[in-house]
Every structure is written in structure tokens, then in C-alpha cells.
Amino acid sequence: MIKAFVIISLGFMLLERLIPWRKEQPMLRKGFLSDLAFILFNGYLFNRLFYVSVAATVLVYFSKSMEALGVWDTLKSAIMRGQPLWLQFIVLFFIQDFLKWCVHNVLHRVPALWEFHKVHHSVEIMDWMGNMRYHWVEVIVYNGLLFIPLSFLGFNPHLFYWIGLIEIVIGHFNHSNVRLNIKWFGYFLNSPRFHIWHHAADDPQAINKNFGIVLSVWDWIFGTAYMPSNRVPGQLGFAEISRYPTGFVGQSIFPLSLLFQKRETSQSLK
Q: What pTM was estimated for this model as a whole?
């Protein structure tokens, strides 16, 4: 996954130089070093530390517990178990993308989770690197909410790797400064022209819109799509972004500090 991630990232770095959408936007833009730190942490360090150690241990104990309880035997007839890989891939792709669309909604609507998701929305100049600016708590939320329901359906675990690569490609593409208008296909697939409105800070109609991860179709179906055709946002971020910490360390610590402050406040009121 790491090698594939590097190749995909270098590919978008090159595309942004060859066919830029906003030609005046520099490569070494505001927040470049911070996003480089997020890439190293989220794309490599946290990936290896969390998935290889913590997540792997949790999955082993989870599987052993399910086996001891006889759950796996009961689920041998799970709907996707034994189905052709191509069918498993298609079903898993759509189910997972829809569930992630739902989780993304939750990140915006639950105040405590929004404080962590703000890290991603602190991007003020958008390019492919912005895809990797997110708090590590988001990874735990996504995987915690998705793993159990998906594991019970009997999908081949190798499919999660390939769908993960697709998510990286489209995620980089959504945030990239690449001049590629996919036109009518944008009603199905996410794109820079669609996703940039999710980050808009100067248009009230753009608030809580365009939650799609890989696909935009969920937003069009459920009425959360917003993409004016004749303009782009004048400002990205959120209302109080001028008071928000800058830099990798500050943005990693700040949401956690808010939770501790609220906990101490609630305890003092008891």
C-alpha cells in the first residue's frame, strides 16, 4: 500500500504541474509543510503503527471471539461468502462507499466529531495534498463503524486493499488542482469541481453539502449535492478558521484538548 500511495501521489503532483485548474496556485502554497507532515504521519507512520499493530491485534481477538461464540459457523451462509470475487468487489465497493458517505455526514453533524473533522477543513488552498490532512481519530471512527457490519457479510478481505487504492486515487483527484472536467459523469463520480464546494466557507448554501467519498451519486440522490456551474468558492475552510491552530502538531493536539476541557467542565458542574 505504501509504494502504491507514493506512486499515486507523485502522479497527481505531476498532473497538477502539467494541467493545473487554478494556474496561479503555487506548489509551495500555504500549509505545504503541514500537509507534508500529515502525509508522512497518516500515509506512513500511523498506517504502519495502527494497522500493523493495534488494528491487527484487535482483528485477531475479534475473530477468535466470534469463533469461540460460534458466530462464524452461523454466518457461513452469509450473503457474500463464496460469491464470485467480481460480484463481491462491486457489492463491497457500493456498500462501503455509501456507509462512508453516512459517516462523513455524522462527522459534520456531531459537535465532538466535527472538532476532529475541522482539521481536514482547515485547508485554505486546495490541492492533492489536502486529501491527507485529517486527524487520526477519523480513521478510528470510520473503521470502528464500518468493520463490524462489513465483516459479517463474508467479503474476501483482499478486496478491501484494492478498494482502498481506489479511494486514494479518487481522494487525491477530488482535492487536486487538476483541470479535468468529467462533465455528466460527475453526477456519479466525485471530482475537484464537485468536492471543492464541500470545503467552501463563503457560501451558506454549501454548508453540509457534497459528502461523497468516491461517488457523488449519494449526494444527488439524497439532496446534499451543491455545485454552481459558473463560479468557484472564494474562500475555503470554516467561519472561525482565523483562530484555528496551524501546523501538524497544533492541529493534532487541539481537538483532543477541547475534549479534555469539556470533560473537566462537566465534572466541575456535578
A: 0.86
